[in-house]
Design brief:
single chain; 217 residues; mainly alpha; Serine Threonine Protein Phosphatase 5, Tetratricopeptide repeat; 2 domains; 9 helices; 69% helix; 0% strand
């Protein structure tokens, strides 16, 4: 998956910074062929990928409205019947990618509810294609957006769901080298600590400590 929000190094306070991606430089003035002009499903699928990359480049340069347009065009292609038929699994993954990145762009514009709506559309697709890592990250980000909306209970629910997904991943890493396990723990630590802090604010101290204990290898 190519989600822009993957791999954030978030702090305990709500972070709304888009993680930069290493992408080829694409001129923001580049105009892609209209959707109807693409001649084959392969052309359309490749065009959607270019639109995602263009949207990511626009997001990196804070051109969020332009990025939204790019992601929307990509989404339409991934959802089209011809592309869906030719690339059934890949188009679903691309659809989740476009939806997730639409969420990133709206989040960057402080349009938190729109971001949540797009993320929630992406979630069932991620489950369908079995992308648990992206699912865990997405759930945590929804939780952070609920924090931004001053909805701690909803934030706790989403973050707890994120922990459940990530712990299912961690269970499969037990046979791997300790440094690999530690790298995974480090990648989720800020989200776990945020959940613990929210639980403590609700006087749910035992639950908070149990979450923090998960960070101990």
């Amino acid at each position: 998956m190519r989600f822009s929000y993957l791999g954030w190094a978030t702090s305990l306070a709500l972070s709304l910074t888009v993680a930069p991606l290493t992408l080829p430089t694409i001129p923001t003035t580049q105009i892609f062929l209209p959707f109807a002009a693409a001649q084959t499903a392969v052309d359309q699928f490749q065009q959607a990928g270019l639109l995602i990359e263009q949207g990511n480049q626009q997001t990196r340069t804070s051109q969020y409205q332009a990025a939204i347009q790019s992601y929307q065009q990509a989404l339409e292609i991934y959802q089209s019947a011809d592309v869906r038929q030719a690339f059934s699994q890949e188009s679903r993954a691309g659809e989740a990618d476009a939806l997730g990145n639409l969420g990133v762009a709206h989040r960057s514009l402080s349009q938190y509810q729109q971001a949540i709506d797009y993320y929630q559309q992406a979630l069932p697709i991620l489950r369908e294609v079995g992308d648990r890592n992206s699912e865990g990250v997405l759930l945590a980000d929804i939780g952070r957006l609920y924090v931004a909306q001053n909805s701690p209970q909803s934030a706790i629910q989403q973050l707890q769901s994120s922990v459940e997904v990530r712990e299912s991943i961690r269970a499969e890493l037990r046979q791997l080298p300790p440094e690999t396990q530690q790298a995974f723990t480090d990648s989720v630590a800020n989200d776990y600590r945020l959940l613990a802090e929210l639980l403590r604010q609700q006087n749910r101290n035992q639950e908070a400590q149990a979450i923090l204990n998960l960070l101990e290898l």
